[in-house]
Write a structure and sequence with these properties.
binds magnesium ion, TIM Barrel, alpha/beta, 9-stranded mixed sheet, 40% helix, globular
Length: 368
């Protein structure tokens, strides 16, 4: 069955992809968020021409072929665009075979525990504790991640004393049954990260994410070796050579590929298998409530070396207004600290037709 049409529906932060094959069957996917308008241009210029007229079913080979044709462009933008194709192909395959994606890759639908992931650094420690308490009391969430240091901050805190304050405040606000995690987003030199790591150990934090600049794995490794708690990372890395190297050198204790940054589910599954062969667990990165978290739910529920919970952004309209109203029927409903993958073919979501109608539309088709 040949691919005959590739449509994109784009706003500045989000771009959905619709794929159509010869018999009229369709699938929806999404490119990676942020600068999605630029990614959509790449999709039509550097992805669509290599895909139109090709058979749909061998994703792996098809995506390798794009990469070979565009081998001078091995970077993030091409992969962000390929993620749109790949996730649309998986949705199409699920709809053709009448199965949710999770069932196509060895898992089954059902519930998945989440951890509430804060994206805010401009929030005061007391206010962060209050919103975690609300989520715990109202939705049963029992694991949380908050931010320390400043993003790629060269060792500087968001404001003086914030990191020490928030680590102690969160620990004092919850008992040991509530899992506490932090993310430094590439802030520290190793000696600083180790000092912060001891503070985390003393305050029942179990997961220290991206302590050092992610592009300096030797620094991260020093921190991993020095601390008793789990050091984690990998969200930015999208090259399988780097994945193999990071796992082989045991750079962190828990690895966190991002389905969309990787170039889609097909490649994320390859990263998960490299991580598994190294004997590690995989707790994927997913930082907003566009399609990336849906795809990650299916991914996490299927892999054998899955970590214990799904990252789940707790930010709403005030912080990420662009992620509002993307889907019908609230696929992110939380009950008892869990989300649910329903037994619906493909990704199991319906993209809001109003959102699609108000986006920038572009099409590449076989006869163009
Ligand atoms: Mg992170």
């Amino acid at each position: 069955m040949k691919i005959i049409k590739l449509e994109t529906f784009t706003k500045p932060y989000v771009s959905f992809v619709k794929i159509t094959v010869e018999d009229g069957a369709t699938g929806f996917g999404q490119m990676s968020t942020y600068h999605a308008d630029i990614t959509a241009q790449i999709f039509h210029k550097q992805v669509a021409p290599w895909v139109l007229g090709k058979e749909y079913f061998n994703f792996d080979d098809l995506e390798d072929f794009i990469f070979e044709r565009e081998h001078k462009f091995p970077g993030s933008y091409l992969l962000r665009a390929i993620a749109g194709l790949d996730t649309a192909l998986w949705d199409l395959k699920g709809k053709i075979e009448n199965k949710p994606v999770v069932s196509l890759i060895g898992g089954s639908p059902g519930k998945l525990r989440i951890y509430g992931s804060s994206m805010k650094r401009d929030i005061k420690p007391f206010d962060e504790a209050e919103r975690f308490k609300k989520l715990h009391n109202e939705k049963g969430v029992n694991a949380f991640k908050f931010r320390v240091g400043s993003e790629c901050g060269r060792g500087k805190d968001e404001w003086e004393g914030r990191t020490e304050d928030i680590v102690r405040t969160i620990n004092q606000s919850f008992d040991k049954n509530i899992i506490k995690m932090v993310d430094a987003n590439s802030c520290y030199e190793p000696h600083q990260a180790i000092e912060i790591g001891k503070l985390l150990e003393d305050n029942n934090v179990t997961h220290f994410e991206e302590p050092c600049p992610y592009w300096k794995p030797d620094q991260t490794r020093i921190v991993t070796d020095a601390l008793k708690i789990d050091v984690t990372g990998g969200e930015q890395d999208c090259d399988l050579r780097i994945w193999k190297d990071m796992v082989k050198r045991r750079i962190v204790n828990i690895f966190q590929p991002d389905v969309m940054y990787m170039g889609g589910l097909t490649k994320a599954l390859k990263a998960a298998s490299i991580i598994k062969e190294g004997g590690f667990i995989c707790t994927p990165h997913t930082a907003n409530l566009s399609l990336v978290t849906i795809c990650t739910m299916h991914f996490l529920k299927a892999i054998e070396n899955a970590g214990p919970y799904l990252e789940f952004s707790i930010e709403g309209e005030d912080y990420y207004p662009w992620q509002q109203n993307l889907f019908l029927n609230d696929p992110y409903f939380i009950d008892d600290g869990k989300v649910e993958i329903k037994d619906i073919p493909g990704w199991g979501v319906e993209i809001n037709p109003d959102w699609l109608n108000n986006s920038d539309y572009k099409v590449s088709r076989i006869d163009d």
